[in-house]
Write a structure and sequence with these properties.
By secondary structure, this protein is of the alpha/beta class. The strands form 3 sheets. Strands 1-5-6-11-10-9-7-8 form an 8-stranded mixed sheet.
């Protein structure tokens, strides 16, 4: 059997310069969120299949990498013919595992609990720019806070973190979009959709940026929804767009819960003064977020020139109760780490190099043990002073060796021949 040297489609090998950039971004994320009081945790990448298929993950549940049963259990499932062959799956986000984690460890954690997670997730998706099958997510969540202070903290912390990261490449502008699932549900019900239809209708509206109102109309009619309800529903959104006032939208959208409207207005008013100059926060009536577990305010970050969201999240007060039997207020923000790295690479000049002063000692084949010892001692001294130093045997093609080291950021070379 011939080995395949390229990675699986939608998954990437990381070169040293890639890892330096990623570790740099990781450190900025941890430093910023740590300053806001978020505490880092970790959950397994493998999750119970029952948790992943709980109808809370929206379209992501169609993209699960399932893990088959093993040994005798797999044999019995195959013999039955109609049994489930998988008992586990790779997590498609960090929110479902967090809900299980909190339900299991709640008594050991402070309240409210401000969690930071950073780790790989997996989706059997169609790979494209900024979208992979294995990718890193960074999530912050606040569990046990029923007030909108949770949303204010999440948006403020994430905006501060993105501002610091993008400042390194001269980007000062991005937009935070906010909406509320209660408002979205009320609009759908006012148009004539039944409660059990609302989730499906919102999944279609979530495609507004991709297929527009005509595509949404076609999709809803193909699903068999009443034509008059579809017409009334889409009429609300024909003149709606990001940046309009909540009051203006509410005036044309039917019976919208005023507590949700007031809550959003307060979130926007509290966050806006804390944003840097080019960062905006706007009400976006077409923002949906595809996950079915959202119960209140939702938010997403966009940047001009990119078709994908940089970050997104919202309130999900009912998820933890599915694990513990008792609902817990919860709100979170997920950062698209791979997308942030993609944007940084688009604007960087060259690779993310080693620190200035990186030195390479190249040792010839005839160098004595005594001289090697002297070189190693000198390298150790430079490292103690904070320098990056590598010691390696000298190649026959020394020019090519130095070119490759220079590409990584080495600028000082000491060739030792004897």
């Amino acid at each position: 059997m011939k080995f395949i040297k390229t990675p699986v489609k939608g998954m990437c090998d990381m070169l040293p310069s890639d890892m330096r950039l990623r570790e740099h971004v990781f450190s900025m994320i941890k430093k910023t969120y740590g300053a806001y009081g978020f505490m880092q945790i970790e959950t397994p990448i493998v999750e119970h299949i029952e948790n992943l298929t709980s109808k809370q993950g929206g379209d992501n549940e169609k993209l699960i990498f399932k893990v088959m049963k093993r040994g005798a259990e797999l044999t019995r499932a195959l013999e039955k013919g109609d049994g489930e062959l998988a008992d586990n799956g790779l997590r498609y986000d960090l929110t479902v595992p967090l809900a299980r984690y909190y339900a299991c460890n709640r008594e050991k954690l402070p309240a409210p609990f401000k969690a930071l997670q950073m780790g790989n997730v997996y989706r059997a998706d169609n790979p494209q720019k900024g979208r992979f099958r294995q990718f890193t997510q960074c999530d912050i969540d606040i569990l046990g806070d029923e007030s909108n202070l949770a949303e204010i903290e999440l948006i403020s912390a994430t905006s501060a973190m993105l501002t610091q990261i993008f400042a390194e490449i001269g980007i000062t502008e991005f937009t935070v979009h906010v909406n509320d699932r209660r408002i979205l549900g009320a609009v759908a019900r006012s148009a004539g959709f039944e409660e059990e239809q609302v989730g499906s209708v919102l999944i279609s509206l979530d495609k507004f940026d991709k297929i527009g109102l005509e595509g949404i109309e076609r999709e809803l009619l193909e699903q068999g929804y009443d034509a008059q309800a579809v017409s009334r529903y889409l009429a609300v959104y024909r003149n709606a767009g990001a940046g309009m006032s909540i009051e203006a939208f509410a005036g044309s959208a039917g019976d919208i819960p005023q507590d949700a409207v007031k809550n959003l207005e307060e979130i926007i008013s509290c966050v806006r003064p804390m944003l840097s100059g080019g960062v905006k926060i706007v009400f976006d009536p077409t923002l949906v977020r595809g996950m079915g577990y959202y119960t209140g305010p939702i938010f997403e970050v966009s940047m001009d020139g990119y078709s994908f969201a940089i970050a997104g999240g919202g309130r999900y007060d009912q998820m933890i109760g599915k694990f513990s039997g008792q609902n817990v207020a919860a709100s979170g923000f997920s950062i698209g780490f791979e997308r942030i790295v993609t944007i940084l690479k688009d604007h960087m000049q060259g690779s993310f190099l080693l620190p200035e002063g990186a030195t390479a000692f190249l040792i010839g084949g005839k160098v004595s043990q005594e001289r090697k010892t002297q070189v190693l001692a000198e390298a150790a001294r430079l490292r103690q002073e904070g320098a990056t130093v590598t010691v390696m045997p000298m190649s026959k093609n020394i020019r090519h060796q130095i070119e490759l080291l220079e590409a990584e950021g080495y600028r000082h070379f000491q060739k030792v021949f004897e």
